[in-house]
Amino acid sequence: MIYDGTAPADSDVPRTGGLPLAPAGFTWPMCGSCCGEPLQFFVHLPVEYGVLSVFVCQNDPGACEFWDATSGANRVYLFPREELQPVSVPETGVTLLPAVSAIRTHVVTLDPEENDGHDGHDELAPDAYDLARSGWKREPEERFGKQREVLGSLGGSPSYLEDDRLPACPSCAGTTEFAAHLEEGISSQTAMNLGGQLGYVFVCRACREGAFLTD
Question: Which branch of life, at top level (predicted)?
Fold first, then answer.
């Protein structure tokens, strides 16, 4: 997922920031960790099976454990694509990012030899998301490429996440599937404060909700 400029706050396009779109009757989620304040809306992400909507507590970063999938300090919803509408924003709390970032997707094909590790010895094999991110628009004279343009990825497998941190569905306690990586953002105006960590989104299609955590 690549940064693609700005977008209207209520647009039904892949974006971070702006207003959440939800079915009629949706209530803005509150932090269930310790502050009890409204969560901040992070991303509107249309996928083949609906729309993922992610909220993370930012009222007092570090106090509420937004990085923990079971803390109550974040929320993931899976909405149907039809009849979504902008949600009324609470008058208190840290609820919206200062700016909207449009997202475009770019399919990355990796060289199998590059992803084979180092001669099959003890070192970890290069991670697919790491390889795609580090190689984005890399030019010979650029040391790091334009990695800040990368806002995450869709599908695949969670990058370097330990098996014991894979979250269960908060409703049915069943297995969730990995849906997306989320980076903080490209600038201070567009970025969610994730403590400099990578975000992971998981979803239970049956219950139409999911889980969020960071590494």
Answer: Bacteria
